[in-house]
TrEMBL record:
GO terms for cellular component: cytoplasm. CXXCXGXG motif repeats lie at residues 174-181, 190-197, 212-219, 226-233. The J domain is necessary and sufficient to stimulate DnaK ATPase activity. Zinc center 1 plays an important role in the autonomous, DnaK-independent chaperone activity of DnaJ. Zinc center 2 is essential for interaction with DnaK and for DnaJ activity. A zinc finger (CR-type) spans 161-238. This is Chaperone protein DnaJ. Residues 34-53 are annotated as: Disordered. It comes from Corynebacterium pseudopelargi.
Length: 388
């Protein structure tokens, strides 16, 4: 999600297609509709839809939260009324309003203002609007980092779905302190900020609060750090995770495993694991949406006289009837024998018939074929009639 120092360039209401006066219910309804329309699972490989999905999620993360929405609205109001005029003003330049060209909000609210931005703690726009001494909640939401990895599947594994164990080396909860970071498992209220997670800071004409540098904005401190993790609550270790791949996954599609990424510090939530799936080509099957396509070699006699042949599927072979007089290259459809994705109608199996011409014929076959060719000519059949 975007840091608050990017709010100046964002219009989250427009991203969700609602007005700034929209109710919480209307915002939630708009978000659900857009998230459903642009979800990566519904548009595998569509980068535009994936970016739109992220944009909508970012917007809802802010205006869908009453506290963040209030801060965002106040910031936009102050920005529109020129409430930030004068910052970065050049002496004698006559510059009277708005932001100076090249001015970076990070000069005031980021690391150059003396506060680290890691885990979003450098963003103090919310503190800027904390007038009147209202109590602030300590930052307890910082979660672990997301992790990305890749796997390669056979075509049929991807089509039918599978479960696959993978090894992941990342930050995991410390097994000694169970992720708390404390040897005894107890944490205490930070004595420097009184548990608020913020300390007062004077910046020129403004009185603002900043994340407490002693507790990192959490409002808590550890008196007896765990000797194994040094008080962080996490350690790097390798673990085995079973990744369940849904049926019908496509090449390049990402599968999200919530909470399986890096562990958060001191018991905070873990990030997510994103698994990019690569799918090998199959010797027989090709895919077109949820349909499967195969090309089956047949004889001339089978097409001319008609026959019933056996063709493979993802499960057991099925019998397919070839009507007499079927032309070479025709595609026959076997309904419901394609890919079955969860919650969707099963695709079909499309069987293309292709004549296989023998290279060598014995004397009997050659004699019989010559007799047929003569009978064919006697009947008046001309394969090139109306061709040119």
């Amino acid at each position: 999600m975007a840091a608050k120092n990017e709010w100046a360039e964002k219009d989250y209401y427009a991203d969700l297609g609602v007005s700034s006066s929209a109710s919480e219910q209307d915002i939630k309804k708009a978000y659900r509709k857009l998230a459903r329309e642009n979800h990566p699972d519904s548009h595998p490989g569509d980068q535009a839809a994936e970016e739109r999905f992220k944009q909508v999620a970012e917007a809802y993360d802010v205006v869908g939260d009453p506290e963040k929405r209030k801060e965002y609205d106040e910031f936009k109001k102050a920005l529109a009324s020129g409430g930030f005029r004068g910052f970065g003003k050049k002496a004698g330049s006559g510059y009277a309003g708005g932001f100076q060209e090249g001015f970076d909000l990070g000069d005031i609210f980021g690391q150059r203002g003396g506060f680290a931005q890691e885990d979003g703690l450098g963003d103090i726009f919310g503190s800027f609007f904390n007038r009147g001494g209202a109590a602030r909640k300590p930052n307890r939401s910082a979660r672990g980092s997301d992790v990305q990895t890749e796997i390669t599947l056979d075509f049929r594994e991807a089509a039918k779905g599978t479960a696959m164990p993978i090894q992941l080396t990342a930050e995991a909860p410390c097994e000694t302190c169970h992720g708390s970071g404390s040897k005894s498992g107890n944490v205490t209220t930070c004595s420097h900020c009184g548990g608020s997670g913020f300390v007062s800071e004077q910046k020129g004409a403004f009185g603002m609060s900043a994340p407490c540098p002693y507790c990192g904005g959490t409002g808590e401190q550890i008196e007896d750090p765990c000797p194994d993790c040094g008080g962080t609550g996490t350690k790097t270790r390798t673990r085995t995770i079973t990744v369940r791949i849904p049926a019908g996954v496509t090449d390049g599609q990402k599968v999200r495993l919530a909470g399986q990424g890096e562990a958060g510090r001191n018991g905070r939530p873990s990030g997510d694991l994103y698994v990019t799936v690569h799918v090998k080509k199959d010797r027989i099957f090709q895919r077109s949406g949820d349909n499967l396509e195969i090309t089956v070699p047949v004889s001339f006699a089978e097409l001319a006289l008609g026959d019933t042949i056996s063709v493979p599927t993802l499960e057991q072979p099925v019998r397919v009837k070839i009507p007499a007089g079927t032309p070479n290259g025709r595609t026959l459809r076997v309904r419901g024998r394609g890919i079955q994705r969860k919650g969707a109608k099963a695709g079909d199996l499309l069987v293309k018939v292709e004549v296989k011409v023998p290279k060598d014929l014995d004397a009997a076959s050659t004699s019989a074929l010559r007799a047929y060719a003569q009978a064919e000519r006697d009947s008046g059949f001309d394969p090139r009639k109306d061709w040119s």
